[in-house]
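Q: Give me the 3D complex with magnesium ion.
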Amino acid sequence: MFKRLRRKFGGGGVDEFSTARPGGGPGGIPFDGPLIRLEGIAKTFMLDDVQTHALRDVDLEVERGEFVAVNGPSGSGKTTLLSICGLLEAPSSGTYVLNGHDVSSLKPSARAAARNREIGFIFQSFNLIGDLTVAENVELPLTYLGLPVAERRERVAEALARVDMSERAKQMPSQLSGGQQQRVAVARAVVGEPEIVLADEPTGNLNSHQAETVIELLRGLHESGATILLVTHDPRWQSTVQRAVELFDGTIVG
Ligand SMILES: Nc1ncnc2c1ncn2[C@@H]1O[C@H](COP(=O)(O)OP(=O)(O)OP(=O)(O)O)[C@@H](O)[C@H]1O
Ligand SMILES: [Mg+2]
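A: Here is the predicted complex, encoded as structure tokens.
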């Protein structure tokens, strides 16, 4: 499955924000800088007149192909950081340069396009779509890649088999346990073989066999060249992670 990661990038349909071509910068000029560069990023939430500074003055660089852990206590901004890196949320201030392109204030449609094509998410809340079946949920990222139906089916079946969920393909997310939903979310995150995988406690709800499967999957994606940002408290990831970033109270402290 991971061999396709490279093959995918030979094809067309990749716009200027694509992270997918190694060295692919604006106008075909090779871009050798970091894949992700955050400069002075802040994120402030306003709820009932209460301001929360989820992130303040965050500088971070992630090279293409790195496997980075994001650590820190509850409420320190880990999920917010992943959401900004994954173009789910815009920063309140600061600059985000993705593969040499400033994406800090991208229009929502361009943001969504880049996100759908390049980024796979495995988040704490699984975000499966309730009125789609398991198989349809996993197929979703592939619809943006313009693959033929037969290949989509094959890849969905392969991804579900990898997380041991083949028998549940036709069920609805509400009929699954939390751990099963998590495995479907993992299948969906890896099926399109994205360049960047953002994982927030991906093994938090899994038994040890299932956790090993997920670790293996992400390790395989990483070996194929994907860049991975991972939030976890699970010590089993230790040998896989190359570098750790420590957040405290919205600031990188180490
Ligand atoms: N949508 C939101 N609206 C308001 N406040 C938010 C929102 N999202 C996050 N926050 C606040 O921002 C801060 C950082 O939250 P975040 O979810 O990034 O923390 P975290 O490090 O992921 O924590 P945990 O380990 O518990 O998941 C928290 O104080 C949280 O309450
Ligand atoms: Mg979180």
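A quick observation: Residues 55 and 250 are 4 Å apart (CA to CA).
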